[in-house]
Amino acid sequence: MPHIVRLYWIVALVLMPLSLLWLLSNIGPVFSFSSLTVSPLPLAVFLVLLSWTLLGGYEVLFSNSNLRRNYPVLANIRYMLEYIRPEIRQYFIANNVEEKPFSREHRNLIYRRAKDADDTLPFGTEQNILEEGYRSLAHSIKVVQVKEEYKRVTFGGPYCSNPYSASRLNISAMSFGALSSAAIAALNKGAAKGGFAQNTGEGGLSEYHLTNGGDIIWQIGTGYFGCRNKDGTFNDDAFAERANLDIVKMIEIKISQGAKPSHGGVLPGVKVTQEIADIRLVEAGKAVLSPPTHPEFDTPRGLLDFVTRLRKLGDGKPVGFKLCLGKKTEFLAIIKAILETDILPDFITIDGAEGGTGAAPVEFSNRLGTPCLESTYYINQTLIGAGLRQHIGLISAGKTATGFDMLEKIILGADAVNAARSMMMALGCVQAKTCNTNNCPTGVATQNPLRARAIDVAEKSERVRNFHRGTVHSFLELCGAIGFDNPSDLSPTDLFSRSEEGTKNFDQIYAPLNAGQLLSDSIPNSYRDDWMKARSDSF
Fold this sequence. Notes:
It is a single chain. The protein is an alpha/beta fold. The protein is built from 21 helices and 15 strands. It folds into two domains: 81 residues, no CATH class; 398 residues, Alpha-Beta Barrel (TIM Barrel), CATH 3.20.20. 42% of the residues lie in helices and 12% in strands. The chain is elongated, with a radius of gyration of 28 Å. The termini are far apart.
């Protein structure tokens, strides 16, 4: 018998009766509740030993846990401490720059900006500016201000009849269902106040997206929620009805996302309420499949035909697609299909492997996908090399919290940037990492109405606006500090990364392409093999 179990029986069979005798000797022969209060110490000892005995007896006799059967009381203490370990580490152990995915420094910055409070840093940086991979900028003695006309960017190629002027920073894809109704409404109201856009995520258009006036980028995922037939195929009429709403400004076809690329999902039937069913055009109470691939196309040419189809149904509004870069031959196959068909998407949204989601398999989050900066550089260069960059806008997503996060993505080729988790933090998210449990302590990532009521839509919408304004302001100041009055003039030579060989700009680290170089005989070796293997009729 383990010594801890022996200790349990000693306490239960010896000390417990003794504590009871001690208590009885203090309260006298006549029992009453008032008599208990005059003997607080014996009473406390008795209650502790009683709890020990009852808990330990249950675990020894009935528990399915190996650890609890051998350590009937201490195991429960262990599990309790393990349960609160993230909070203990977050608040008492971790320093300001080491937490993942967002450090305390970044979280505090988001909270301060959301509250429109002082966001300055005292006493110097805590970053290790000599560590390998540390990224920095070269400032200019000649500081300038970004011109007003360059603070927004227009999306819409030559075949788009209804282009959209977008903010440089917008809300990334987060569905109603992943976020609470109050969170969606607060984000949208904040977008309306601040003049930026909200991406719906693949869960469809809800009333919470539509009633507060914020511009909408409607994402169409593989489940075609809000524009589907009963068998899961695409419904043209349902799409056209929603796409032609004035508040919908762009359409985004989701191919993959960074947190779980090439992985679908199932919404259990118990979570498919009547409200969710009405929004997604599915049956209430039945499980809903979001497949890993699109039923409507399976080739690069098929993707572009779908782009044309949606643009026509959507009254000429910008249509693009979102992906996490995986096999480069597959992306280059899309480029070849564009060249061969002359069908141009209006924009491409790039999601990095560091992107977040409410729930994803650990292996997918940790091991699949290309980091956002590397993806943004590569996709921008291939568009330049194919002579297409001037026709196709780029949006970069993946862990954006600061003005520098915006700047480095735009330097490497993006026209605009999306942010998701930092927008959640502006609503009050504390990085509790309980998004997959429906028990979000702040009411942001939950469908529990009792928890969601913690969000005051009017108040939190102000914080969303404040965070957006402060972050964009920081981005514009950085642009001016390195000597640019137009963010579109930034280039990869303006961003530096430290290595053992010294500090290099991104064009020195990776291989840049000249305009149209992929169409010539002088394709660099780093692109040649993938380019030659790519086929427009097959991924």
